[in-house]
Amino acid sequence: MNMAMLSPFPAFATLSAQERKLIATASSPKIVAAGQPAFSEGDPTNHCFLSLSGHLKLVRTASSGEIVILGFVDPGEPFGLGVTHEIRRPASAIALRESKLAVWPIAIWRELQNEIPGLTLSVNHILEKRLFDLQERFVEMACLDVPRRVALAVLRLIDRAGRREADGVRIAFPVSRHDVAALTGTTLHSASRILVRWKRQGVIAGGRRTLLVRDVPALIRLATDPEADVSPWGQRR
Amino acid sequence: MNMAMLSPFPAFATLSAQERKLIATASSPKIVAAGQPAFSEGDPTNHCFLSLSGHLKLVRTASSGEIVILGFVDPGEPFGLGVTHEIRRPASAIALRESKLAVWPIAIWRELQNEIPGLTLSVNHILEKRLFDLQERFVEMACLDVPRRVALAVLRLIDRAGRREADGVRIAFPVSRHDVAALTGTTLHSASRILVRWKRQGVIAGGRRTLLVRDVPALIRLATDPEADVSPWGQRR
DNA sequence: CGCCATATTTGACGCAGTGCAAATAAGGCC
DNA sequence: GGCCTTATTTGCACTGCGTCAAATATGGCG
Questions:
Q1: Rounded to whole angstroms, how far apart are CA atoms A63 and B144?
Q2: Is B82–A132 a contact, with Cβ atoms under 8 angstroms apart?
Q3: Residues A59, A68: contact at Cβ < 8 Å?
Q4: Crossing angle for the helix pair B146-161 and B216-224, to the nearest 10 degrees
Q5: Cα angle at B174 between B206 and B219, to 5 degrees?
Q6: Which pLDDT tens digit goes with each residue over A139-160?
Q7: Is A14 part of the contact surface with chain B (CB cutoff 8 Å)?
Q8: What are the beta bridge partners of residue B93?
């Protein structure tokens, strides 16, 4: 791989050109089609990855069969780094769109980390961020009701992959109701009911596997205002 | 601090004696009384910590005022490392018993990381473990009912701080019903009801802020068997 | 363009778990 | 030992949201 490809990514910003070159030349390219996994739960942990373009989701299947989305991978982010502890992948990485990846055999990656201290620091940085993000979501899961969790999840999608458009902000990759549910720890059905309600109120729009937020401030209000929202389950008499 | 104090801790196992000495001499000792914070939510992130003895809990207060336990710190574990991203602490670290700590000013810690690549690798290791642990709990929160979450939380407490005793395994630090609730994302009341039920069944024992598990296999069954447990909310007629 | 598989929506229903209020227990301290 | 604070337990009414079942939309593809 050309070293130039690494330079624009913040994960490597602090490294010298020479170091980046060393890292880049050790990698192999890989292309994953939309819907396909870069790796799957249970696979042996043989490689480290960097997303060059596209988007992936990290998903995990609970013993009950339910699916949970642990996070997303944006272009420029390394992933599948969990190479110190686990011999097998604890989660799958599924491409949401065709994604170009750089791949390193784990042994090589370890060598690189030993030779380039700055690389380890970068990895550190990323792990820390992932940990803080998950802590955030964990607290939300523990304390907030479903509609608020959904609102926050959508807001997070916006600043991860929101593209401004004529009538709102569009999430740049496909998001199904099922994904929303897997992201917020609820069911497909509840997620649907909630989004339908907001659609009727004009806060969001979008059909099959697409999400367009028309009124971001309203969504923020729904997420944070303790008074906001009468849940979509209709008053019981 | 004496360098000998560092050697038994796995976080530093891969470092040379000389490196450990460098790290140790840069630290200051600190003692935190039971119930007191090593640092609190919102504090500026000025220091890194290592627990030498005792136990701490990492807690976070949600906007609603609810409290969530993000994790525990055992003797030998570094903590409060989130120094790359956050200028203010996202969580508090509260001592569950009197705890001895080693403390480094953050600037010094950064220097140490630069000089000792192996230290950064250790930190990496720890962050990775924390991340995987939290992912685990996240999935549980998303997929399991409250009694099962409580069972799993107690099991996790056992292999973190369980001491074998004549009639069971005791958790080595104080755990209130409130703590159990904060650990599993439920209410004090539900946690109490569940534990009372298990107490009557002879699975656990213990009063005020103590937990003694008398029948670990039964608890494992309650946690994992999909058939197990009729929830403590008593059949309604 | 029409068919088919896949997504989404919707309704009815019930229960796990919460909220509130209050009783009860258990230590710790003087 | 008795008092006071803090933790735990408990009853009851209520509801958020999961479950089940089914109708309906939608886009891709031949």
A1: 10
A2: yes
A3: yes
A4: 140
A5: 50
A6: 999 999 999 999 999 999 999 9
A7: no
A8: B39, B58
Dihedral, B153, B154, B155, B157 alpha carbons, nearest 10: 90
Hey, is the C-beta of B227 within 8 angstroms of any chain A C-beta?
Answer: no
With CA of B188 and C1' of each nucleotide, the nearest comes out as: D8
CA neighbor of A142 nearest in space, from B70, B88, B231 = B70
Q: Do B62 and A131 touch (CB under 8 A)?
A: no
Query: Which of A62, A63, A135 shows the shortest C-beta gap to B90?
Result: A135
Predicted confidence (pLDDT) per residue in B2-46, tens digit: 555 676 677 788 889 899 999 999 999 999 999 999 999 999 999
pLDDT at residue number B111:
93
Which nucleotides in chain C lie closer than 7 A to a protein CB?
A: 7-11, 13, 15-21, 25-27
Q: Smallest Cβ distance to A130: which of B64, B113, B131?
A: B131
Say whether pLDDT at A198 is over 90: yes
Query: Which stretches of B111-178 are assigned E, i.e. beta strand?
Result: 162-165, 168-171
* Size of chain B in residues: 237
Helical H segments across chain A, by residue range:
17-25, 106-115, 117-143, 146-161, 177-184, 188-200, 216-224
The sheet that has B162-165: what strands, in order across it? B162-165, B168-171, B212-213, B204-205
Q: Is B81 on the interface with A (CB under 8 A)?
A: yes
User: B21-25, B74-78, B212-216: which has the highest mean pLDDT?
Assistant: B212-216
Separation in Å, CA A45 to CA A28, A77, A171, A211, B35: 16, 18, 31, 34, 41
pLDDT at B236: 52
What is the structure's pLDDT at B237?
45
| pLDDT score recorded for residue A5 | 64
Question: What integer pLDDT is reported at residue B167 of this predicted model?
Answer: 92
Token representation of residue B190? 């539900």
pTM score above 0.85: yes
Rounded Cα gap, residues A179 and A158, in angstroms: 15
Question: Strand B168-171 relative to strand B162-165: parallel, antiparallel, unpaired?
Answer: antiparallel
Q: What is the dihedral of CA B183, B184, B185, B188, to 10 degrees?
A: -80
